[in-house]
Design goal:
5-stranded mixed β-sheet; Aspartate Aminotransferase, domain 2; 14 helices; 2 domains; alpha/beta; 7-stranded mixed β-sheet; binds pyridoxal-5'-phosphate; Aspartate Aminotransferase, domain 1
């Protein structure tokens, strides 16, 4: 692990000027193949599915910012999830966060159950509930924290203890927190996963996934899967992700500052009945968030007073700066209506049991001037009064 502080690693971690030209930013090596002087006599690069210098630079950066030894970059966050699943064999069991990202849930249930993997979905607020699901076949524990959109917080170190005892791998999807705020490997995770589409890229201009590990043998297995199944990202997207990472800490500071101000503003608004934000002391995950994260992130969910679809829809349709769109983590603010958008495929009673009611709105608070963001929300919410 590099010894420098985060902001330095984000910019320099695993990076060096291009050896052939001195270029400070790694060039976009838009090539599929590499010349060999004689059979097998090459410079470490043979074919770009296996290795590409731009992707390699990104992978070294990912390892550095997560405090791991190896990074792997994929064509999307779900391709990174897929690579983790391929570590498993028929009959193996996975214990997973119940309110995980919808696409991950879909891949587990619709793709991998038919290959003989068994998934247990459970809230992970109490370690004993998770431990009670461990069997001889448990090979992986899957944690996403904070979760989407209820921002539940899971104790990573507690899950690491259970995983270790069970001889299972602990995977942590660190997309919402980012490595600036949460370092799962230091807390005992075996694999850290990212949808770099979100905060790492940070500019809503690419789709990319990542894994980071801190173990040579595990890295070897994952590199084999990456090359053998081929879901790699291209050099252009690798370049964009690397460029995004260089400002991660600066962006996150402003995301957090703005989110804290917006959460306070919403809490005091007469058209709002509840605000879900891990920075509030009455949030059920506040204490753990405070202990394992160095900040509360840029995501907020809130409920309109009537809790109706009509009112929530009215608000998100009238917001001007908070663009109504899927995704999160870009510099621009986004709004979303989980019940009809990201979580529409979950049955209504199941959805509501976990808090995703029709009146819930999710915000990815961007880094615009917070006065304008508040004014935008106030104008839309005032329509309900
Ligand atoms: C978006 C997201 C994913 C999936 O990543 P893609 O890049 O869209 O494939 C996985 N986990 C979380 C928490 C996400 O937000």
């Amino acid at each position: 692990m590099d010894s420098e502080h985060f902001g330095t690693r984000a910019i320099h971690g695993g990076q060096h000027p291009d050896p052939s030209t001195g270029a400070v930013m790694p060039p976009i090596y838009q090539t599929s193949t590499y010349a060999q002087k004689a059979p097998g006599d090459h410079q470490g690069y043979e074919y770009s599915r296996t290795q590409n210098p731009t992707r390699h630079a990104l992978e070294r950066s990912l390892a550095s910012i997560e405090g791991g030894s190896h990074g792997l970059a994929f064509g999307s966050g779900l391709a990174a999830v897929d690579a983790c699943m391929k570590l498993l064999s028929p009959g193996d069991e996975v214990i997973s966060t119940n309110d995980l990202y919808g696409g991950t849930y879909r891949q587990f249930v619709k793709v991998y159950e038919k290959y003989g993997l068994k998934f247990h979905f459970t809230p992970m607020g109490h370690a004993a509930d998770v431990a009670s699901l461990v069997s001889a076949n448990t090979k992986m524990i899957w944690v996403e924290t904070p979760t989407n959109p209820m921002l539940n917080v899971i104790d990573i170190a507690a899950m690491a203890r259970i995983a270790k005892e069970a001889g299972a791998l602990l995977v942590v999807d660190n997309t919402f927190a980012t490595p600036y705020l949460q370092q799962p490997i230091a807390l005992g995770a075996d694999i850290v996963l990212h949808s770099a589409t979100k905060y790492l890229g940070g500019h809503s201009d690419l789709v990319l996934g990542a894994l980071v590990v801190h173990d040579d043998a595990l890295a070897e297995k994952l590199y084999f899967i990456q090359n053998a199944t081929g879901a790699v990202c291209g050099p252009m997207d690798s370049f964009l992700a690397l460029r995004g990472i260089k400002t991660l800490h600066v962006r996150m500071d402003r995301h957090m500052q703005n989110a804290a101000a917006i959460a306070d503003f919403l809490k005091g608004h007469p058209a709002v009945s509840a605000v879900v934000y891990p920075g509030f002391e009455d949030h059920p995950g506040h204490a753990i968030a405070k202990a394992q994260m160095s900040g509360f992130g840029g995501m907020i969910s809130f409920r309109v007073a009537s809790d109706s679809f009509q009112d929530a829809s009215k608000v998100v349709s009238h917001l001007k700066l908070f663009t109504l769109a899927e995704s999160l983590g870009g510099v621009e603010s986004l709004s979303g209506h989980p019940a009809s958008m990201t979580h529409a495929s979950i049955p209504k009673d199941q959805r509501e049991a976990s808090g995703i009611t029709d009146g819930l709105i999710r915000l990815s608070v961007g880094i615009e001037d917070v006065r304008d963001l508040k004014a935008d929300l106030d104008a839309a919410l005032s329509l309900l009064l």
